Amino acid sequence: MAGGARPDGPGPRPALDRDPGLQPERTRLAWRRTTLSATAMAALAGRQLLESDAPGAVEAVLAGLMGLLWLAFVILAHRRMRAMTAGRPPGLPPRTALLLVACTLALALCGAVVLVRPGH
Question: Which of 50, 53, 119, 120 has a CA positioned 20 to 30 A from the CA of residue 78?
Fold first, then answer.
């Protein structure tokens, strides 16, 4: 229909409410899977760090940093999951998206450091 004409006559189309369907539920479940994956990775990497022969200050600091990054990620993800329960969920704010990406990348970097550490 050209120019936004209504199928039942001339004039603009009325604003339609968005039917969210199952999309918010799928998104909420995806956030839960991602949070579970981050939890498993942080726990396994922390265990690897702290079970070394003689964990030193570097291992303790890295384990603490991973714990803080994990906690920040879980808090941000939980807020997003709660927002998805709304009938019309808001978009992901850019600041929150940036923080989530930063936490994910930092956790991945910490995990890589754990894997390539000498002596393991």
Answer: 50
